[in-house]
Amino acid sequence: MVDRISPARRSANMARIRGKDTGPEMFVRKLVHGLGYRYRLHKSDLPGKPDLVFMGRRKVIFVHGCFWHRHKGCSLSTMPSTRTEFWKTKFRANVERDKRVVKQLKNEKWDVLIVWECETKSASMLERKIIRFLEDQ
């Protein structure tokens, strides 16, 4: 299948995709702050620069986009119909990096929670998940 938009327009679209301060991340940050928890953002001295870092609890939260990080079984985790080999390689590298980062953090005695983009659609369920994670000793 041929891309329906020009390479210049596709490039502009892709350039607008952010790595931090995304809609789902901002939703999680607002939810967590509203629950009374305080956190640091994107600590560069930790593997993977976690989205939210709870220093005293030694816990981190990553907010993953279902498409980019390949949320298994999720309808948002689609495969583009063009340049499929490129995308398979890209997605495989993302998933491998995510696994490596989680392993590094756990080896450094950090607890890790992954919040998927699709989970931000239900604030009440996500709230319970985050509270359980942060309050679990």
Q: Assign the structural class, choosing from mainly alpha, mainly beta, alpha/beta, alpha+beta, or little secondary structure.
A: alpha+beta
CATH C-level: Alpha Beta
Count the DSSP helices. Answer: 5
The strand order across the widest sheet is 1-2-3-4
Average residue-wise pLDDT: 91
**Secondary-structure element sequence?**
HHEEEHHEH
CATH superfamily: VSR Endonuclease
Describe the structure.
It is globular, with a radius of gyration of 16 Å. It starts with 6 loop residues before the first helix and ends with a helix. The chain has a 4-stranded mixed beta sheet, sandwiched between helices. The protein has 137 residues and is an alpha+beta fold. The chain has a single domain, classed as 3-Layer(aba) Sandwich (Endonuclease, Chain A), CATH 3.40.960.10. 45% of the residues lie in helices and 12% in strands. The model has no long low-confidence stretch (mean pLDDT 91). The chain has helices spanning 7-15, 23-34, 66-69, 84-107, 123-135; strands spanning 40-41, 52-54, 59-64, 111-116.
